[in-house]
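Below: protein 1.
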Amino acid sequence: MQLCCKILKFAVLHMPKINYDALGIGASLACAIHCALLPLFLSSLPIVGINIINNNYFEVLMILIALTIGIYSLLHGYKKHHHKIFPIILFSIGMSMLLLKQVFHTYQVVFLLPAVIMIISAHYINYRQCKLTAHCHTDHFSHD
């Protein structure tokens, strides 16, 4: 039984780590690029039958991806590292503004920029807080 636990612990310690905050920042930036730059540079896509500029399914998919990554990374940082609620509040406000952008299409620009800034800031703050408190979390089996 001890050998099995040692093998499992070795496997967990040597698994590649995914930085979910960096992934969240990347997803938020991809969303911002999609929403802000894609209409400017790729306005000819409908000519060839591709329409992702005002495609509600694509918009909702991007929001759900950002929400899923954000919830996971921010809750992980909160529970396992820094126990600070500010990044979660900032992220929640940003995601709420993204949802408002979907509902009130006339004000998309008004909601989009602050939403993206808040979401990226929340991930960045969470990342910095996790790095500052990483000193006491070297054992992957603590806090479970």
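Below: protein 2.
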Amino acid sequence: MTVIINPFDAGGFTLAEMTEAINILPNRYSRITDLGLFRSEPITQTVVLVEYANGTINLLPATNRGGPAAVAKRDTGAVRGFAVPHIPYDDYILPGDFQGVRAQIYGEQSDPLAGIMNKRLIKMKAKHDLTREYMQINALRGILKSGSGATVYNFFTEFGVAQLDVDFVLGTAGTDVAAKCRQVLDYIEDNLNGEVMTEVRALVDRTFWGKLIGHAKVADAYKYFASAPNPLRDDLRRTGFEFAGITFEVYNGNATLSDGATSEPFLPAGEGVAFPIGTLDTFTTYDAPANLIETVNTEGLPFYARQYIRESGDAVVVHTESNPLPLNKRPRLTIRLRSSN
């Protein structure tokens, strides 16, 4: 009897090795990650429980030496449960993809099968990265969305608070834009409730940016902005422009939703979002374990990958998945920016 061998088994493509490979691939969509905004935290379960009490930090009283210590007080806020979204994505390697293919066409890979698998993982990882970025920017704005564009959680509703926004009225030459910035800063400082921050940053779309740097009371500040990139020579949309305590930068990300036809910008036209940098526990992305027997009760990883022969025997299935829950625990710290004219 002829023994049928899965050629990919010989390459050591186990769950652990493929998962390690997909996790070390570079992230192509990483502005939110680059800012260090959402702290990544692995969890062993598929539901996150949050006790919402604004995370108030109380001062500690002084006592006599040898006297009783202050006892930690437990928050008594309402508990919210958030199920972690499950995002599986499969691709296939067909016999014709590697039959008769020589190794050298895949660059320096000595094994053509390894080259094929690596190319599949790169493309699949890019889709997971874009989905993660899309989910995180929307969570930052207060409403977590899935890759279909549907709302998963409205954090304002979940935590029973109203969204804060500031109309910059940039179409009016007499608008005191610096005062609008101070209003944003006041909103954030008033809602820290025991949190900390190092600075305030704002991601805005190109329309808002154009109105901002072109405004009569901002134009000179932009023109003579003292920075390593010179505004008279360089494009500050990516490096940022600091004005009245807020660093503004353009964020023009967009994605095609899972229907394959609808494109959605990460920020609505003419809007932006301001938020604190350097918080301790406001923005967190929880990563749950994969929906696999091997990963039950283990700490979750950002991405998983495995391969197996399709039941019909005519393809190798490359299965990937991610299970991220970007959570904005203090949605009133993220301020909607807009201009009504």
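The longest helix spans residues 112-140.
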